[in-house]
UniProtKB/TrEMBL annotation:
Residues 301-311 have a biased composition (Pro residues). This is Uncharacterized protein. It comes from Polyplosphaeria fusca. It comes from the Eukaryota. Residues 291-300 have a biased composition (Basic and acidic residues). Residues 291-311 are annotated as: Disordered.
Amino acid sequence: MKTTAAIESNNFFSTKLDIDTSKTQINMPDIVFAFGPSHSFYFFAGHTRHFSKIPEQFKRYVLESPENEMKRLKQPQCVALGPTEQEYYTMYQTMEDTDRYTYDFQSSHPELMNWLKPLSKVVGTHVAIGPRRTFYACVPTLTNGGTFYSPSIPADLKSLLDDNASADPNRKFTAQVSLGYGDSWYVLWPNGEVSWDFKGHYDELDTIMETLPEKCILHLVLNPWERGQYFMVLEDGEVKFCLPEEYAGEIEDAIKDHQNQWQTKRISSIKGGKAQSHIVGANKIHMVLKDGRRRDKDGPDAPPPYDGGSV
């Protein structure tokens, strides 16, 4: 197990937004990525979103809410896809700036649904779905929250979570957890520190992590179903990823567009000084999946997912 954590590697696509921060504090809009089963994914950056084969219920109730356009997703806070093609969790800010969450784990994790349903709707709640029907959930509040995870999560991760929860009040909860391929895992703590063990399945990412300055990772997800694939966002706006070839180019273009838009926005909004901005690109590598076949499954209509409503 390792703690804390990354930067330039010519083996990975890397794009970075550099702005002179001496004149202003930069708060870049979140970039969110989620891996799903059967090469499904969800990507969000500013006003841009890309996805493939996401659950129909997620699309219907979150992205295209027919009942009320103001209840649709404006900004995701957490998105988890799987373990089946129709299951998911998401907490998000709506068009009317309220916080909502909805999920459907009826087939695979009814115990997780039962645990989540009575809990308070707390901003910062996050869920991770892993291989072999593993899961982790955290509702970060002392009064009506806690953590809940499957018995089959990696033993060293379970020990880390249990030991820290009892010994360190600052680590009673997590800020993000990702369950990866072959019992690999990653944890982001509320103070910005990170812990991880990739179990030899993400060698290049291990190297990146060991060269990063402390407390600089905003978002890191591991693909639980494919070895070596990940998506990382750093606090300075840099994005690193290793994705399947079938959609890596699409995501790369979306990141560049988003950063160019943000660059223009920041330049026009800074007063009394000039922002020096440019996009820095690097060589990229696309991982080609050994099994690139898509498998679409059509089944009977599922009942509506649990809708947690607004906070």
